[in-house]
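Review form for a predicted model. The reviewer records the input and the model, then writes brief findings.
Reviewer: anonymous (R2)
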Amino acid sequence: MKVAIIMGSDSDWKVLKVAVDTLKNFGVEVEVVVASAHRTPKKVHDFVKNSSAQVFIAAAGMAAHLAGVVASLTTKPVIGVPINSEPFKGLDSLLSTVQMPGGVPVATMAVNGAKNAALFAVEILALQDDSLAKKLISYREQIAAEIDIKNKKIQQEVLL
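Model under review:
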């Protein structure tokens, strides 16, 4: 199983690295490329058309059309990650990603929500992979246990 991550600029890597790390922690193969919807549209087209990925994560800032362009080129799931950029603190990216016309869906994460994009991709892949589904359940149990530990620590401080 493979997830392809496309970022509009190498400056997006600082946000997307957590997605790669998360996917690798689940044992999911990852393919990463820098390709711009506006500056290298042929590269985006060729990459999407030739990729064996089952899910795409597309991240871009400013006029963030990358996820929509990727979605227009495939019927596979596309997850958009708007990137926080100046001058609008990611609001422009969020609106560009989330406001897709009917018929060409993009699942949109929060601004800089690369980790959730990776986890959502894992959830999609887990629909047809029982071992991945079990890893996802273990992950959820682990984060719940971490919250319990944090709660106990706070409760102890309250008692002091």
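Findings: The chain has two domains: 2-128, 130-160.
Further findings: The chain has six helices and five strands.
Recommendation: see findings above.
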